């Protein structure tokens, strides 16, 4: 087959989006102002997204979860020109860690061809199981914890007690944590930010083998976009917080027993993903400020080619602020 001409890599444009959101919100690290930090990130992200040549519709946005005034589900972004794409955004994955000065707060955005992203509607939580490339095809979200850990350990030529499991630090995970401990695996509890947690399973230097537990459905779709390009795998099942939510979901046609594969969460390989660190973490360094500027650390992923780029940028505020509508 003849070689085709290189096509446009939108991920290289998306990284400007996450850099802008990280720079705008990074000032709020440890200041206890969650809403102000989120607004700064949302405003910066939306401004840059609308400068990109694309016809985008928000499938995973801020409005349903955080009652944000912008970047809501169904909002149109870009300049209206092709390509027609779905877009998923999380201006701050880890608002609470940012506000409290903790680790693992990042800014993320992903796009995929129109109609290929899973729309969770108003149902904001899901069971998740994610692994890196070595363990693809070895996991089953319906299998017991010990079975999944045993399979992962065997395929990676490790003992179960060598494995590290990332779990969100929530009371709902007390039983899961106990089961993992009984298997002998190590546990890394994170306060928030399970997009980064899922991505760490694909990042050799992160020392993470599997993500388990219940987290946000929007973050599950974003993680699926990233793992699609990084060669990993994620499975999910919608989680109802109470009987009323379950009944409403069934009435709307959602199946809370269905196993959602990575193909269900994002069905196209032609996916683009970018993430920039806001606070330091195992995956990315946070924003570092210096006289008249700052440094950012980002990951840029293109699913079609499997390219994963690490990008460090130095931003000069003396030149940037006079031409920007965002005050960095």
3D architecture notes:
With 328 residues, the protein is an alpha+beta fold. Helices cover 31% and strands 26% of the residues. It contains 11 helices and 13 strands. Strands 1, 2, 3, 4, 10, 11, 12 and 13 form an 8-stranded mixed sheet that branches. Helix 7 runs parallel beside helix 8. The chain is globular and about 55 Å long. The model has no long low-confidence stretch (mean pLDDT 93).
Distance between the termini: 48 Å
Number of strands: 13
Number of helices: 11
Series of secondary-structure elements, N-terminal to C-terminal: HHEHEEHEEHEHEHEHEHHEEEEH
Helix percent reads 25-40%
| Radius of gyration from the alpha-carbon trace, in angstroms | 19 Å
Low-confidence segments: none
What labels would you give this structure?
11 helices, alpha+beta, 5-stranded mixed β-sheet, single chain, globular, 8-stranded mixed β-sheet, 328 residues
Fold topology:
Layout: H1 11-26, H2 34-49, E1 55-60, H3 63-66, E2 76-77, E3 84-93, H4 95-100, E4 106-113, E5 125-131, H5 145-155, E6 164-168, H6 174-183, E7 186-190, H7 194-200, E8 210-216, H8 217-230, E9 233-238, H9 243-251, H10 262-265, E10 272-277, E11 288-290, E12 293-302, E13 307-316, H11 317-320
Parallel strand pairs: 1-3, 6-7, 6-8
Antiparallel strand pairs: 1-2, 3-4, 4-10, 5-8, 5-9, 10-12, 11-12, 12-13
Helix pairs in contact: 1-2, 7-8
Short description:
Helix content is 31%, strand content 26%. The chain is α+β, with helices and mostly antiparallel strands and 328 residues long.
């Amino acid at each position: 087959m003849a070689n085709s001409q290189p096509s446009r890599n939108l991920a290289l444009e998306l990284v400007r989006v996450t850099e802008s959101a990280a720079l705008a919100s990074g000032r709020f690290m440890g200041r206890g102002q969650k809403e102000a930090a989120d607004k700064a990130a949302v405003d910066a992200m939306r401004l840059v997204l609308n400068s990109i040549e694309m016809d985008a519709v928000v499938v995973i946005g801020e409005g349903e979860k955080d009652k944000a005034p912008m970047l809501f589900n169904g909002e149109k972004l870009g300049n209206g020109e092709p390509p027609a794409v779905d877009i998923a955004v999380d201006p701050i994955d880890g608002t609470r860690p940012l506000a409290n000065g903790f680790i693992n707060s990042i800014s993320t955005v992903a796009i995929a061809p129109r109609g290929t992203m899973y729309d969770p509607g108003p149902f904001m939580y899901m069971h998740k199981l994610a692994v890196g490339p070595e363990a693809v095809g070895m996991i089953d979200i319906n299998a017991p914890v010990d079975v999944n850990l045993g399979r992962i350990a065997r395929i990676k030529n490790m003992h179960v007690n060598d494995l590290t499991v990332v779990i969100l630090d929530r009371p709902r995970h007390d039983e899961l944590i106990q089961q993992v401990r009984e298997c002998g695996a190590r546990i890394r509890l994170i306060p928030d930010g399970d997009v980064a947690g899922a991505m760490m399973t694909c990042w050799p230097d992160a020392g993470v083998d599997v993500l388990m537990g219940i987290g946000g459905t929007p973050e599950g779709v974003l993680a699926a976009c990233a793992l699609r390009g990084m060669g990993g795998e994620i499975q999910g099942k919608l989680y109802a917080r109470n009987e009323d939510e379950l009944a409403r979901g069934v009435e709307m046609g959602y199946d809370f027993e269905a196993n959602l594969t990575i193909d269900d969460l994002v069905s196209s390989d032609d996916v683009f993903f970018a993430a920039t660190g806001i606070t330091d973490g195992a995956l990315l360094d946070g924003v570092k400020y210096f006289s008249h500027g700052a440094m950012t650390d980002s990951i840029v992923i293109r699913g079609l080619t499997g390219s994963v780029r690490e990008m460090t940028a130095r931003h000069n505020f003396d030149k940037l602020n006079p031409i920007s509508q965002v005050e960095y």
